[in-house]
């Protein structure tokens, strides 16, 4: 599969992508060449999202889309950014890299978007980022903590903490707080799962310990039984699962059926609300690391604003970690657009990110730099409690 992605990407990149600026083709005696920025008009800025809106990871794409649109609707109700409304067009990639390539090119060439935002997943981002980089198009707030997106020479603008930071915090909590030493990993067998596995292994190496077991399953499936058997025989005290919500829930439910007495821990990409719903009452006690605060927080102003924006945009929508991250991505984008100024270009947007040393964002701090394209380093630990709700772990 990896070779196919590289092959497709090479073909797509070979065909070329849109440049940032175009010129007015109508030039008369008194006319001048007027630069125009793709996706930007006097009254609109258009963004594009390629994400999973169907399939086992659909809740992630829909959640990010919901949060971004709620943030855009919030600022549009106040008159937009320098009088421009923010709009979002989306295309479904089903969490498959080949479709992410096709969609990214279509968003740039057919939909003529200013920037790409809210991509979901490591394998899809790995396929789409070279297209954005080649076109010098911002690739904003992908829903992944993969390390390659943290290369400051790229056009990626990251909101969230990295997977290395999440897995390090998980291992620290398991070993220091819960006194657990026998840790196994089950991972989705692709670039996302492998990054997570490497993060856990790195954290274990730092404390001089080894994983007792490793299991893998294919992306976009629930074929987790072989992985379960592989790790169950190692008698793990804790299992860290690097996957999406559907196979993660399947794994935990089967583990409980065979009375595997382990602590279950997974990372933010899982899709917390979808996981809790899939597990039902069997989810109580399952841990999830998060890269955004609890969306129902009564202390954080940004959480209050998120809930109000969501209520106004879609009164029937439920709050959740994924849509909260989407909302924060939208708010971050608004902040960078304001910093970039009225005479907006893609280059000015990227400069605004590199020059932003600190932005409080009403309780969720962001800090970038000339060599730092990741806004937040925060990791929060949560656990599923009663009624499929999440509680913060101190």
Overview of the molecule:
With 394 residues, the protein is α/β, with parallel strands linked by helices. It has two domains: 2-24 and 33-161 and 301-363, Response regulator (Rossmann fold), CATH 3.40.50; 163-290, 3-Layer(aba) Sandwich (Rossmann fold), CATH 3.40.50. Helix content is 41%, strand content 15%. The protein has twelve helices and 14 strands. It has a seven-stranded mixed β-sheet with strand order 9-8-10-11-12-13-14, sandwiched between helices. The chain has a five-stranded parallel β-sheet with strand order 4-3-5-6-7, sandwiched between helices. α2 packs across α10, α5 crosses α6 (191-206) and α11 (321-340) packs across α12. It starts with a helix and ends with a strand. 51% of the residues are buried. Residues 1-35 have low confidence and may be disordered.
Tell me briefly what this model is:
This protein has helices at 2-15, 58-76, 97-109, 122-135, 163-177, 191-206, 225-232, 245-257, 272-279, 301-313, 321-340, 346-355; strands at residues 21-23, 35-37, 44-51, 85-92, 115-117, 139-140, 156-157, 183-188, 213-217, 238-242, 263-266, 287-290, 380-384, 390-392. It folds into 2 domains: 2-24 and 33-161 and 301-363, 3-Layer(aba) Sandwich (Rossmann fold), CATH 3.40.50.2300; 163-290, 3-Layer(aba) Sandwich (Rossmann fold).
Key attributes of the depicted protein:
394 residues, alpha/beta, Rossmann fold, 2 domains, seven-stranded mixed sheet, five-stranded parallel sheet, disordered N terminus
